[in-house]
Specification:
Blueprint lengths: L3 H13 L4 E5 L2 E4 L7 H10 L8 H22 L6 H8 L4 H12 L3 H19 L4 H7 L5 H12 L3 H7 L12
Antiparallel strand pairs: 1-2
């Protein structure tokens, strides 16, 4: 689950299936103790709605890291002196960055840094599509060292220059759960 609508969809799905969710948040659903969960019955329901049941602790942690990295993007935009990615993650989890990084890389087949870059580029695509900010303003907002650095990274990830993307206004935005 990567957005509030996903949380709501999972909550509704669980309720329709006869479960009593105690709490549903990004990547986690806690059920009332009186309704034992049957993972084998729940998995196809979630899959039909475009979700997956995470069975292992590593998969769960990876999804929590992804959700936290989405929060980190907002932190970058709003914080006067933003934390580093590693400091932000270690503040949120009771684990070292090294451990988080190893689990994430093994499970997502991608480093935290590369996932964060993809996440940032998706946000940049969104901002470009609005047409309200210059490239340098977007670079500042996303904490790139310069518009040129953003431009280079944008081309590496998308295969297009920023100006090509703007001119073609490519609808090639990706959903956040498709980034890894």
């Amino acid at each position: 689950m990567v957005c509030p609508r996903c949380v709501e969809a999972v909550q509704n799905l669980l309720e329709r299936a006869g479960y009593r969710p105690k709490a549903v948040s990004l990547g986690v659903a806690e059920l009332d103790e009186t309704t034992p969960a049957d993972p084998e019955a729940l998995a196809p329901l979630l899959h039909a709605a475009g979700f997956e049941l995470l069975r292992g602790r590593a998969e769960q942690l990876t999804e929590q890291i992804k959700a936290t990295l989405a929060e980190y993007l907002e932190h970058l935009r709003t914080a006067r002196s933003p934390l580093t990615t590693s400091a932000f993650l270690t503040d949120r989890f009771a684990a070292t960055y090294s451990h988080l990084s190893k689990v994430f890389s093994r499970t997502a087949h991608l480093t935290i840094e590369k996932y964060l870059i993809r996440l940032k580029i998706e946000r940049v695509k969104e901002l470009l599509s609005y047409g309200e900010l210059t490239l340098n303003q977007i670079a500042d907002q996303m904490r790139y060292s310069s518009g040129q650095h953003l431009s280079n990274q944008f081309r590496q990830v998308t295969g297009y220059s920023v100006s090509e993307f703007r001119r073609l206004m490519l609808p090639e935005r990706m959903s956040l759960d498709a980034l890894a």
